[in-house]
């Protein structure tokens, strides 16, 4: 690896940084739920409405963001998205009602949608197929790092300076990334820091001999005609809502079940995401190990995803484990979160396996929209009314048991549907 150069990993680190900021900004509100509920007189229904608003605009944004990134190119598209979502994150500090937060979350959802289409496009541009799952796993672990940093800093900032500053300080970090992005990022064909050996290695996939200069935009309506698009989209539809649930409700679960304070939830929430980081990176290593043993690329992805789906199932027993010790519940949820991240690293990579580079961001956008719609449906049909009802009768633990049961089965169902739609590797020719 040293002989061919390693500048591509610099690009991967930039994408990792952006993904970290992306998740740091979106998680702040879940950590401050109890404070905001008290100060602004929210109930679970108001919080669910705010969450639904974010997901609606995130879903729409994912559909639009993919095509925008494909049209503008990675550098401009990623830069604009990060700058705008950082402003939206700061804007939360000026909201003083549930409606005000709905407006701020709408802006954040719309703009944060640019991260993953741009990140996957960057990976497709800068890495050969056999390294993409690893690179995706590394940058996708930024979701965990953001989720780790948030509980360790946000509650403390809120207690010392007030909840408004928690939004302002985290939002400003995105502008640091923007400076670094402008300095270090360019496409491989234009990079002066990329050796010829590394350039050739990046473009070493024999079956991917497409013209590097081809920037033709593929309409998303055309992409919907392929089973491969639907396999990815339905996989995201069923599994993304599980991650949304962890992200937006885990602090409330710990406070509701174990009566923890705002500061006390910091460490257990961070531990869940520390464990999940292992899954994100490990999720890239496992298929690469299969590929190195001469297993076909697509079979390696799907085999890995089936293994990860099985690791989620024990989450249904998290509350039972927690009756013995809270940390056992944290461990079980952490393993499920790790399995999700491993799954996520691979489902994203199936897009660059099945589609040419010019369409990857658009397909990822369609899948992201589907994931957002799944999250909206779950929040509206289950979390919103169910959580309000069970909390009103002092049985919130029942609501969480139902949610963990849904989480446990989502991945196996998603894997089965994806397998039925695309049983074998079929490269899309556009």
From TrEMBL:
Species name: Emticicia aquatica
Alphabetically ordered keywords of this record: Membrane, Transmembrane, Transmembrane helix
Transmembrane segments: 50-69, 138-159, 165-185, 230-250, 270-291, 303-321, 327-348, 360-380, 400-422
Name recorded for this polypeptide: Hexuronate transporter
Subcellular location: Membrane
Entries under Pfam families matching the protein: MFS_1 (PF07690)
Alphabetical list of InterPro entries matching this protein: MFS, MFS_dom, MFS_Na/Anion_cotransporter, MFS_trans_sf
Keyword Transmembrane helix applies: yes
Residue ranges occupied by any Major facilitator superfamily (MFS) profile domain in the UniProt entry: 11-426
PROSITE patterns: MFS (PS50850)
Membrane topology label: Multi-pass membrane protein
